[in-house]
UniProtKB/TrEMBL annotation:
This is Uncharacterized protein LOC118408141. Coiled coil: none annotated. Signal peptide: none annotated. It comes from Branchiostoma floridae (Florida lancelet). Pfam families: DEP, DUF547, Glutaredoxin. GO terms for molecular function: electron transfer activity. One of its GO terms (biological process) is intracellular signal transduction. InterPro entries: DEP_dom (IPR000591), DUF547 (IPR006869), Glutaredoxin (IPR002109), Glutaredoxin_subgr (IPR014025), Grx-like_ET (IPR051548), Thioredoxin-like_sf (IPR036249), WH-like_DNA-bd_sf (IPR036388), WH_DNA-bd_sf (IPR036390). Residues 148-210 form the DEP domain.
Amino acid sequence: MAQSMQIKGRVIIYTVHGCPSCVAAKNRLARLGVPYVEVNLDDYESQERQTLVNRTGKRSMPQIFFNGIFVGGYDDLATLKNDELQALVDEVIHYDAPPTAPVVPCIGAITMGSSLTEHRDRDQYAPVVEDLARSGLIQTHRRGIMLYRKTFVAEEFVQWLSLNEKYSYDHQEARAVGEELLRRKFIRRLTPEGDHHQFRADAMLYRLLDDEEWEALNAGPVSLNITREAVELSKALQVLMKKIYAQYISSGGKTVDYLGIARDPNFKIVESVAYELQRARLETLSKEETTAFFINIYNCIVIHWNVRMGSPGGLLSRGKFFFKARYILGGELYSLGDIENGILRANSKCWYWPFRPFSKEDPRLVCAVLDTDPRIHFALVCGARSCPAICCYTSEDIDTQLDMATDAYLEGHDGCQVDVENKVVTLSRIFKWYKEDFGASKSQVLQWIYNHMGHGEKRQLLGDLLEEGTCQVTYMKYDWASNGRM
């Protein structure tokens, strides 16, 4: 590494957590011996992001300034000619940053603090849950040809609770307790008919969430403590996860040291927060909250799986991975495929599975968005080398953040390549696998890409080809190899 030089001016690099290009850009500046100030936009309010977008016209990260001179992203820095780079270095060595140069904003960092690990009081209905588990009501019940193990009948529960001297509930109050247990995700309804979020004090069967024999990364005895809101849990979990992720990206920005993450004490905190998600209430989330929540959770499940279970091997293992990597969320089981296609793609079929993820009676369907936003494909990261960069998403800024993720992927080599001479546009296979999300024809898909691409040379070239109307579309090979460090 080159010895750090003395400069009069200022080099600022704007970054976000977990961005491989950001890591690569910082490493390049360090090798050159150029001191820099990092402004990580995940640590600031959303207005700082918008200020940068207004100034540069770009949403992707990183973005680099030498005094008041805007260099651009990592690719722009890496392709500078020697004399161009030397001119920039001379600028910051000999000259103070002018008043028009960007300045380091006052920090307003997201505070993780003790809220992740603080003690939480027991839920007021925890004693009822414990007594129900010991009551003898939980047995195997038959409904038609189906046997339901470890279940109880709702009307028997109401009768048992109303006769229990410990609580002194009348019949109506006992029924209200059943409704609260369902709302708080201590129990779940099993039979498919009707509203799964309504407690029916009849012959309906219910099961304690603790008695579900699910295989999930966050499985374990259900917490009897007061649970936090889904939005709060998602934010805490993913911000912490992204900080860990950012620490273990390789210098080239392409591989991740999952073994290092496994040894990091902070990952234990991640697992404890994920554990709380078992009983988080999801049905009350807004569209923006739903989108941000499930993108964050999808990316966290991938990292969690890679750390604890190892990276998927061949294509067969990769295919199974989308079904087997799962979390318990809000009293239901969600795989990666359920989240991507069931929730974020409005319960749509996908290229690797011919059926819709959720039936009409599936309780998870209430959480699904009504319309597919194609930009989610550039936010979901399954741990393959051709995936987009991983980022943290918030409901307040989800629209801007999805624009940034889309812009960044399309600007990169893995998303879109434009060959003007041969009139060929080469796209990521994402646009082939999910073509119906982007348009009914190849021309509509290309127009969608043009509309969502940052203003730059590539967009101009694509626009020229679209005007001619004669370009050919091909697709890149998708690199399914793990981004884990070998």
